[in-house]
Automatic annotation (TrEMBL):
<dbReference type="InterPro" id="IPR047685">
    <property type="entry name" value="CopC-like"/>
</dbReference>
<protein>
    <recommendedName>
        <fullName>Copper resistance protein C</fullName>
    </recommendedName>
</protein>
<dbReference type="Pfam" id="PF04234">
    <property type="entry name" value="CopC"/>
</dbReference>
<feature type="region of interest" description="Disordered">
    <location>
        <begin position="59"/>
        <end position="84"/>
    </location>
</feature>
<dbReference type="InterPro" id="IPR014756">
    <property type="entry name" value="Ig_E-set"/>
</dbReference>
<feature type="compositionally biased region" description="Basic and acidic residues">
    <location>
        <begin position="68"/>
        <end position="84"/>
    </location>
</feature>
<dbReference type="GO" id="GO:0005507">
    <property type="term" value="F:copper ion binding"/>
</dbReference>
<dbReference type="GO" id="GO:0046688">
    <property type="term" value="P:response to copper ion"/>
</dbReference>
<feature type="signal peptide">
    <location>
        <begin position="1"/>
        <end position="26"/>
    </location>
</feature>
<keyword id="KW-0479">Metal-binding</keyword>
<dbReference type="InterPro" id="IPR032694">
    <property type="entry name" value="CopC/D"/>
</dbReference>
<keyword id="KW-0732">Signal</keyword>
<feature type="domain" description="CopC">
    <location>
        <begin position="27"/>
        <end position="123"/>
    </location>
</feature>
<keyword id="KW-0186">Copper</keyword>
<dbReference type="InterPro" id="IPR007348">
    <property type="entry name" value="CopC_dom"/>
</dbReference>
<keyword id="KW-0574">Periplasm</keyword>
<comment type="similarity">
    <text>Belongs to the CopC family.</text>
</comment>
């Protein structure tokens, strides 16, 4: 029969291996975006570009854009950069008027994990 000390030790080993699982560290986090978060741009952008810490699956990744009057902005289909699998490009189907815009993004990274987030930028 195992002593309680060895059971405790085994439990700690299991816990440590769960916490140190590399996949848990490989989620795609947003590292850079254009227009930049909290930026105020002079001209309406033609696309949103989002860079992540990991490669993303374009078929399961995208973003919605909400305008100053809480309206949904029309966007094209999100695609992944051909040169950079960590970059997602969302073309905008309309010119943005002055005001504050909110980007809600969601991605599935190449390891199959989902992440999402939100940021805002403004058009002068
Ligand atoms: Cu992951």
């Amino acid at each position: 029969m195992a002593s309680s000390a060895s059971m405790l030790r085994n439990a700690l080993i299991v816990l440590a291996s769960v916490l140190a699982t590399p996949a848990a560290l490989a989620h795609a986090h947003l590292t850079k975006q254009s227009p930049a978060a909290n930026a105020e741009v002079a001209a309406s952008p033609q696309a949103l570009t989002l860079n992540f810490s990991e490669g993303v699956e374009p078929g399961f990744s995208g973003a919605t854009l909400t305008g100053p009057k809480k309206e949904q902005i029309k966007t094209g289909k999100a695609s992944r950069s051909e040169q950079d699998k960590t970059q997602l490009i969302i073309p905008l189907a309309q010119t943005l008027e002055a005001g504050k815009y909110t980007v809600d993004w969601h991605v599935v990274s190449v390891d199959g994990h989902k992440t999402k987030g939100q940021y805002t930028f403004s058009v002068k």
